[in-house]
Write a structure and sequence with these properties.
Strand order of the largest sheet: 2-1-3-4-5
Mean pLDDT: 83
Structural class: alpha/beta
Distance between the termini: 34 Å
Radius of gyration: 20 Å
Number of helices: 15
Shape: globular
Largest sheet: 5 strands, parallel
Helix content: 40-55%
């Protein structure tokens, strides 16, 4: 199994991190990919590090941003994560990068109201997805030196388990698709929808029922309005304090959502009023930039309630680059052009339901 894992999934030679590539890697999921790829950040170049949920993972693509900025871009976004887990990802990044190079980093956080969900709502077990992977594979250690040595050994030895886990996740949708086809032929009505392809995401137009269902799912994900506390917004301040304490630049981008989503969501309306004092607080910190990109995309540019169509992510990249570029500490270091992983990605993608943002 170990030899087979290397034959099917050779060590990735890329020098950057992009959680969008997780489904095509041996790690399969965002948190596991990030945990076992984070050491790629041990570089000295000027760069951009992206943080956020699946909207950032799918919508801000490194291969589009990097040429616009002239520096490398690492995407550490994790689907269905809140700002507390995104701060954890940033802490992991700093552990890999020499403190002498922290000032070369521009940290970019893409936010919307779904990032401010209370941790116990997102993680009822009390542990983040990253923590769960650490516990699952026995990577927790209080000794920083011992952790680094143990980590490399276990990553090599755990590849057969990663391969088994990947097979399970690959087989599940295929079995579901087969059941769907058999059900349609035998019963004429029983059906489990197939996964959307890239073409589906570029062309599908949401129906009224799909929009209403998406809003209901967001209501479940965020939780009751009465329990959505303003305290959750302090997570943004804590993340800003972390970045500025390391002398890094921080860019906070208010992400776009479809207008129909903004108009119908009570959470968005409350988010718009609650965020103001927290934005003022972080803008007062040295090296912090805030910009709203809420109107950078139109409804026709989204394939669901929050994710840009693959063909339209370049629009978001161009809008983001205008804000990010002035913050970069540009050097004369050559930047390796980052390729488009979607060209090597499966034609099908994990279905992006609204709460997975």
């Amino acid at each position: 199994m170990l030899a087979l894992s290397f034959a099917l999934f050779p060590d990735d030679p890329t020098s950057y991190v992009d959680t969008y590539e997780a489904p095509q890697s041996i790690y399969t999921t965002d948190p596991k990919y990030l945990l076992f790829s984070i050491d790629r950040l041990a570089r000295s170049d000027t760069r951009v590090i992206l943080l956020g949920s699946s909207i950032v993972r799918d919508g801000l693509r490194p291969h589009e941003l990097s040429p616009l900025l002239g520096v490398s871009v690492d995407n550490l976004a994790i689907g269905a994560s809140n700002l507390a887990e995104q701060r954890q990802a940033l802490e992991m990044a700093y552990e890999q990068i020499d403190p002498e190079n922290w000032h070369k980093l521009t940290i970019v956080v893409g936010m919307f109201y779904g990032n401010f969900v209370e941790s116990k709502q997102v993680h009822p077990s009390g542990t983040t997805n990253i923590d769960a992977e650490k516990v699952r594979y026995g990577l927790e250690s209080s000794d920083r030196t011992g952790e680094s040595q143990q980590f490399a050994f276990k990553q090599w030895m755990l590849r057969p388990l990663f391969l088994t886990s990947r097979w399970n996740l690959i087989l599940a949708p295929k079995i579901r698709s087969l059941v769907s086809k058999v059900g349609r032929s035998l019963l004429g009505q029983f059906s489990v929808p197939d996964e959307p392809t890239r073409n589906d995401r570029n062309s599908h137009r949401l129906t009224v029922d799909e929009k209403n269902n998406a809003l209901r799912l967001w209501n479940i994900y965020v939780g009751p309005m009465a329990q959505w506390k303003e305290d959750n917004f302090f997570a943004l301040v804590k993340l800003a304090q972390l970045a500025t304490s390391k002398k890094s630049k921080l860019v906070v981008l208010d992400l776009p959502l479809p207008q129909w989503h903004r108009d119908a969501s009570p959470y968005f309306q409350l988010y718009e009023s609650r965020k103001l004092r927290f934005i003022d607080e972080i803008k007062a910190m040295s090296g912090v930039t805030y910009s709203s990109l809420q109107n950078s995309l139109g409804d026709e540019d989204f394939y669901d309630s929050g994710h840009p169509r693959p063909k339209d992510t370049i629009k978001l990249a161009r809008a983001a680059a205008k804000i990010i570029a002035p913050t970069l500490e540009l050097t004369t270091e050559p930047t390796k052009r980052q390729g488009d992983p979607s060209k090597n990605r499966s034609t099908t993608a994990t279905k992006q339901s609204p709460p997975k943002s």
